[in-house]
Amino acid sequence: MANWVSAAWIASVLDEYAAALELFASQWTDAPEDAVQDAVLELTRQPAPPRNLAAWLFHVVRKRAISANRSVTRRRRYESLAARLTRVSSESPENSFDADDLAIALGQLDDETREVIVSRTWGGLSFAEIGTMLSISAATAFRRYEAGLKSLRTRLESQCDQTNPEKPTRLPNFPTS
To answer: pLDDT of 92-132, one tens digit each?
Structure first.
């Protein structure tokens, strides 16, 4: 703790601002108390007290709450993708590839192409929506999608041929439009 901070002072700050800060943070996160706690910890690390304590606290709480929300959203998106990948591989048992193969093949694509494929295939977004999200045209999103599917098919077919050359492989049906 900085030498200007005392336990009594922190207690008085919390008494005065905690409820309002938690209400403020609840706009962005389901854990507003964590954002407030992070802000108070950050306050104790400051070399000197902020000129406008209330404005500083609200600013830091806002940043922490938005960051926490992004982390939760990102985690949910990854968990949802993993669950969908598992379902893709288990829907047809005659396929000789699994979710791990698909995840590896997706991981080998460049970031832009992977974003388009995941947004379209598992997110259900239209090419116009993907274009808006990535600041590209719908046509560019479509071209990236088509090129990515071609690359995925090639990679998955070669993996399937290597693992079981005797058995014909049925790849998942990715939507084409």
So the answer is: 544 445 667 778 888 888 888 988 988 888 788 899 999 99
Taking the C-alpha atoms of residue 163 and residue 170, their distance in angstroms, rounded to an integer, is: 14
Residue 29 counted as domain residue? yes
Contact 54, 17 (CB under 8 A): yes
Task: Give which of 54, 61, 70, 55 is closest to 26, Cα–Cα.
Answer: 61
Tokens found for residue 144: 């990236």
Query: What is the full DSSP assignment across the chain?
Result: --TT--HHHHHHHHHHHHHHHHHHHTTT-S-HHHHHHHHHHHHHHSSS--SSHHHHHHHHHHHHHHHHHHHHHHHHHHHHHHHHHHHHHHH-TT-S--HHHHHHHHHTS-HHHHHHHHHHHTT---HHHHHHHHTS-HHHHHHHHHHHHHHHHHHHHHHHHHH-TTS----------
Does this model's pTM top 0.85? no
Q: Which of 91, 90, 84 is nearest to 119 (CA)?
A: 84
Query: What is the number of domains present in the chain?
Result: 2
Residue 176 lies in a domain: no
